[in-house]
């Protein structure tokens, strides 16, 4: 297995909606790594995904609604770095990933240009 395949496996196994409550009929239809064909915001940090960037794409049905999410390369890297700690149930889930939450909004509020 190549390093890219190992990284993809770690990214795709990370649950970005951990702890969210859903409904009985919730289902993930597609969860894969793709090359972005167009620009758009990251579902987590809000920064702009660039055309040609390698991103995670997920299509699903949550709470009765069809949804589509894309995560930027840097949020994907943070997902891959997450290592579950079985010894400490109170540990931060994906601290690196959570640190990127709403990064674009934070930068804009501080008057900084939005950048990764």
Task: Describe the secondary-structure layout.
Elements: H1 3-13, E1 27-35, E2 40-41, E3 48-49, E4 54-62, E5 65-71, H2 73-81, H3 95-99, H4 103-109
Antiparallel strand pairs: 1-4, 2-3, 4-5
Molecular structure report:
This protein has a single domain (3-109), classed as first zn-finger domain of poly(adp-ribose) polymerase-1 (2-Layer Sandwich). The longest helix has 11 residues, at 3-13. Strands 1-4-5 form a three-stranded antiparallel β-sheet. By secondary structure, the protein is an alpha+beta fold. Strand 4 (54-62) and strand 5 (65-71) form a beta hairpin. Helix content is 28%, strand content 25%. It is globular.
Number of helices: 4
Mean pLDDT, all residues: 86
The dominant shape is globular
Number of strands: 5
Report the order of strands and helices. Answer: HEEEEEHHH
What would the keywords be for this entry?
3-stranded antiparallel β-sheet; 4 helices; two-stranded antiparallel sheet; 116 residues; 5 strands; single chain; first zn-finger domain of poly(adp-ribose) polymerase-1; globular; alpha+beta
Nutshell version of this structure?
The chain is of the alpha+beta class and 116 residues long. It is built from 4 helices and 5 strands. The chain has a 3-stranded antiparallel β-sheet. A two-stranded antiparallel ribbon has the order 2-3.
